[in-house]
Write a structure and sequence with these properties.
5 helices; four-stranded antiparallel sheet; 2 domains; 292 residues; 32% strand; globular; disordered N terminus
Amino acid sequence: MGSRKSRIHGAAAALVGAMLVAACGSTAATPSRSAAPSGSSASSGSPAASASMSTQPTATASAEIDYGAAAKAIVEALGGTVPPGTSAVVTYGDASAGSSSVHVALGDWQMAWDARRVLRHVFWEQSMDGATPPPSANLSEAQILARVGVLAAALKLDIGAPKEVVAQEGAWMAAWPRLVDGVPAEENGTRFWLNNDGTFLQYTYGWNDLAPKPTALVSEAQATQAVDTCRGGAGPAAKCEATLVWHLQSTAAADDPLSLCWIVGPKGGGGDWRVWVDAGTGEVVDVAAQLN
């Protein structure tokens, strides 16, 4: 039978080779959302994440890596098995993504490291042909949180409890979003996806540099007026709102710096579109559909 394609995998397929290319405006559906337990903080030795600051939750980059051996160790640490005789396929570089990276395929597992040898992506390709057992149980949110801690430790991440836990179709996502002075950095931070039974599905990590912050910002009203739909340029004016974000433009390379933008959309967060307006110049820099 064919592969078990979750919505998570669909959104992540490009990440395997492209090292977390930011999908402009795309978000997974979030039917239920819970905050992580209050009082949780980053690990000792690191400042606690807050509304105005985020730690950089990543393992220390290694000077040298035997990627085949590292991939096997990661699979086993996350509860997977590498069949005897399975060899790692290592691919260096990714010109299409505009970044230097290393991708490793090992059986039904895929992972990638960036140019600094920091692990950026791990994915277990789960199938329905008998090779991957179906979920054996549905865990509670508390049990999922415990499993997230185990998996983070398996990847040698010391990052504390996740800031968000999201129930998705057939899976859970735990996230440590990156905030810069309270402003979200899109597609940056750390995320784990688990199946309902707590088995590992996917890990992603992203952390771009930031472009210089504009000395003066256009207002939210100015940002919304830069969008034709919001000012009624092609019909009745839509009711719009805007929020500041650090954004990777769709024409940029995966490792390029994020720029400060207003993300403009229908008031109340609905609708199927989003527009990014440069917070310094007031110019529209990206337009994308919003996945609901």
